[in-house]
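Problem: given the chain below (262 residues), write out its structure.
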Amino acid sequence: MSKILELAELSRLAYKGSEFIIGGKKHTLNKDKLKLELSKYGYEKPIIFDDPDSGLMCFIVKRNGLTYLIFRGTSNIKNWLTDAKAIKKKTPYGKVHKGFYDASQKLLKFILTILRKHDIILIGGHSLGAALGLITKVILEERGYDVRICPPIGCPRIGDRKFIKNTRKKNCVAILNNLDLVTEVPLSILGWRHYNNIYFNCKGELSLNRGYFARRLDRITTLLKNRNPLEWVEDHSSNEYCKLLRKNLVSIKKYEEEVLDL
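Solution.
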């Protein structure tokens, strides 16, 4: 399987450990379901960290000598507050989203007790989880950990031009979908930027490093053809990203071989 697709699927499974509200009642998806799903595909028993104070969750799981670090995306009010804290925080690399950075620090304390320097690490996440994964990747690499790949799925912008330039590596590529508005915030006009990207256009076709104005034109084309407001939501879903990656699997594998050396 493609490693990018595998990480997208694991990011989708991360939501099985979340809480949600239906009809004013709280429902909890049992973490045993996550463990069961992972065991079906040959993964070892995951180590899950669920922080009730921040509402953040991530898990670490192994298979075939590889260590997967997966971050859950936005799934509660506390996560939304983290998303909204779009203040620029200074770092040695440049300015970064303060909400994402502070949240990653809370999870990092747990992560560093589990990971070992000899681990071969693959990082995944969707939405907020993608942002946390990117910042954690930078910190882990700075500390000498071996991060092989981090393809953030449906990720908001996390840093300014300087931060992106100073932390850009070939093992990181943002996965963006046509009408996914989350990938367009915080606004670029305020100085926020993306890493290199794999972009899915209005036909669900893959293109590499599609620029801001080209993406904007493609979105306008989509809206002229289809004015269904639900598509804005659907295009951000982790299920939709996995579907598009499977559809373009041949191109994804070729990219991994030629660019990522996987």
